[in-house]
Amino acid sequence: MADELFKVSSFGLAKGKELVSEDFSAVRVIDDLCVGIVCDGVGSAEAGGRAARRVVNYLMNNFKRRPRSWSIEKSLHRFIAGINAILYREGIEEYERPEYVTTLSIVVIDGNRLYGANVGDSPIFLYRNSHLQEISFAHVSDEPGMAHVITQAIGLSETVDPYLFENNLETGDILLLASDGLEKVLTPLEIEAKLKFGAASIVKNASRKVGDDLPDDTTAVVIEIVGESRRQSLKNIDLPIPVRLEKEQEIDGYRLVGPLIRNERTWLAEKKGVRYVLKFPPVEAAEDEQQLDLFVREAWNASRLKAGFFPKAVISRNRTVRYYVMEYLEGPSLKELTEKKPLPVEDAIQLGKFLLHACQFLLKFDLVHGDIKPENIVVLERHGKRVFKLVDFGSIVEIFSIASRAGTPSYLAPERFAGEPINEQTEIFAIGVTLYEALSGKFPYGEIEPFQNPVFKTPKPVRIYNKTVPAWFEAVVMRAIERDKIRRYEVYSEMEYELTHPEKVKPYYPENISLFEREPVKIYRALFVVSTLLNLLLATLLLR
C-alpha cells in the first residue's frame, strides 16, 4: 500500500502565548503520490494566516484532481501561479493592497522522484547519510542587515517566480519542510536528533528549549521514505521487451497460440494445458519512457485490482521478458452476443448493477475504467446464469484525468468533447450508452467517428426499438445518457439506487418537451372536465 512507502507527520505551535498560528501545513499520501506543504502567513499582512490556509487547501485539492497528462513540474507552475493570482486580486479588491500574503514550501514525491518548489523563506531540508542539507532557496534581500526581508511571497504581486527543483530519493531519506521559526530556535544538529521521531517531536523540542515561549509560529512536516513503490520497482526491473512474437514461440513455459488483437502485443497462450492471455508492452516502450510508464501502470493496476469484476492477473516473478499474465475468459463479448438480438431486460438490469459496482470498486483506488463499452464486457455462463467481466486494464486511468477523448467516441459524454475530465458522471454516460445499445442495437446519438465533433440531438426512447423494456428502466437508461449533465445522474450510488428500487423511479421526459407531450392523459382529463363545465354552463344559460 502507498502509506507503507512513507512515514509522514505534521505539527505546529503558535508563538508566545498566542492561541492561533499564522502557519498552516498538510501532508497527504494518495496512491503512490505524496504531497507535503508548509505555508507561513506573513505577519505584517492582515490576512497572512488566511492566505496560508487558502494556499495549502488549494494546492492539495488541485494535486488530487490534477490532469494526468500534466507533468508534476507543469502542475506546480500552474497551481502556484493560479493561487498567487487569486490571492493578489482578492487583496487588491478587499484592502486596495496585497494582504493575502504567505510563503510556500511544497514537495511532491512520485515513485522515487522528488519535485519541490518554494516561494519565500520557509526552508526544505533533505536528511541523507546522517547529513541535513537545505535544498530550497530563500527569497530574501541581499542587502546587509535585511536578510529577514522576503523578496517573494504568494499573493505579494501579480506574478510569482517560484524556485523549483528535482532529485532522486532513496529509501531512508527524510524530508523536512518548516516555517522559518524552527531555525530561529534549533540548530541543525538539534533538528537531526529529533527527525526520526517526527514533526511533533521537533516542534515541541524547540518550544521546550525556549521555555514554551516561541519567538515565532513554528511548524514542521516530516516525510520519511521507508520503501520503494511497487510500481517503481516493477519499472526498475531490467527486462527486455520482445520485438517480434510468433505462433508456437515459447516464453517462460507459455506457448503462444495466436494474437488476440491486431497490434500483436496481446496473445492467447497455453501452459500445461491451461489457456492464458499474455500482454506485452509496445515495442516503442524500449526507448520511450512514457510508453513504459503507461505499461507498468497497466500491469500494476491489473495485478492489484483483485475483484470478481475483472479477469485475474499476475506479474510473474521469474520472467525473462516484460509482460503480465491474465486468465483467459472463454465467452463472447457483449457486442458479439447482442449483434443478432437484444439483451433480455433482466440481464440488462444485472449488467447495469454489475458495471456500477465495478466502477464503485475502482473509485476506492481513485480510478475509472475510461472505456466502458460492449466490446470490453465478456459474457460468461456460470450455473445457468450470465456473468459479466470487465476487461481492458490499459484504459484504466485516475479519476479527474483529462485524457483528450481517451475512450471510444460513441460512448463519450458531451462534456468530454469539450475537454472536461473523466469523472463519475462521464462513466455513467458510458454505462447508459452501453445499456441502450445492448437493449436496442442502436447508439442513442448515432455512431461517432474519432476526432468528430458530434451534435447531440434528442435521442429516441429505448422502447421505440424494444417494447419489452419497462418504463421505469427506460427512465433510468435515458437519464444516464442525458446530454445535459445537470439532468444526468451525478454519482454511481444515485443510479444504483434507482436500479434496485424501480418503484422510486420518476418518469423521464426529454428537456423542453411540451406539457401535452409530458402528461397527455392529464391534459385530456382536464380538457374533458373544462368541456363538461362549459356545457353545463351553456345549458343553464339556455334554460333561463
UniProtKB/TrEMBL annotation:
CDD domains noted in UniProt: PP2Cc, STKc_PknB_like
Name listed for the protein in its UniProt record: Serine/threonine protein kinase
InterPro entries named in the record: Kinase-like_dom_sf (IPR011009), PPM-type-like_dom_sf (IPR036457), PPM-type_phosphatase-like_dom (IPR001932), Prot_kinase_dom (IPR000719), Ser/Thr_kinase_AS (IPR008271)
SMART domains: PP2C_SIG, PP2Cc, S_TKc
PROSITE patterns for the chain: PPM_2, PROTEIN_KINASE_DOM, PROTEIN_KINASE_ST
Domain of life per record: Bacteria
PPM-type phosphatase domain residues: 7-225
One of the Pfam families matching this protein, by short name: Pkinase
Any one Gene Ontology molecular-function term assigned to this protein's record: protein serine/threonine kinase activity
Keywords: ATP-binding, Kinase, Nucleotide-binding, Serine/threonine-protein kinase, Transferase
PANTHER family named among the record's database cross-references: MITOGEN-ACTIVATED PROTEIN KINASE KINASE KINASE 20-RELATED (PTHR43289), SERINE_THREONINE-PROTEIN KINASE NEKL-3 (PTHR43289:SF6)
Residue ranges constituting the Protein kinase domain according to the UniProt record: 189-504
